[in-house]
Specification:
binds guanosine-5'-monophosphate; binds zinc ion; five-stranded antiparallel β-sheet; globular
Length: about 110
């Protein structure tokens, strides 16, 4: 999608502090971190949110979750505990309409659920 911020980051058109990249997924630091570690994990393929995910996206979604687990270990927040969360649609407060998992940790996180 041409006018999508995260598609532009995935394409390298807008810089980001990348922590992982392959042909299907990208992880980069959130520009306004809500915790000492705050990474966004996105598919390079445009999906507006998890509400658009289809059965054929199962492997991609699984890969993103396993990457969250791996990055939590690599970034030193796995032992202390971490959160993986995705917003979808207006009631969630989603600001960027390209699917992303937030990986948060490094301190005691406030309750949201
Ligand atoms: P949402 O509210 O859609 O779940 O989360 C969007 C996230 O993207 C926010 O945490 C926000 O700080 C982050 N963000 C917005 N614009 C940029 C940007 O240009 N670069 C990076 N790295 N993060 C961004
Ligand atoms: Zn996009």
């Amino acid at each position: 999608m041409t006018d999508c911020l995260f598609c532009k980051i995935a394409a390298g058109e807008i810089p980001a502090a990348k922590v992982y990249e392959d042909d299907e997924v990208l992880a980069f630091k959130d520009i306004a971190p809500k915790a000492p570690v705050h990474v966004l994990i996105i598919p390079k393929k445009h999906l507006a949110s998890i509400a658009e995910a289809a059965p054929e996206d199962a492997a991609l979604l699984g890969k993103m979750q396993l990457l969250a687990r791996k990055l939590a270990e690599d970034l030193g927040i796995a032992a202390g505990g971490f959160r993986v969360v995705t917003n979808s649609g207006p009631n969630s407060g989603q600001e960027v309409a390209h699917l992303h998992y937030h990986l948060l940790g490094g301190e005691q996180l406030g309750d949201i659920v």
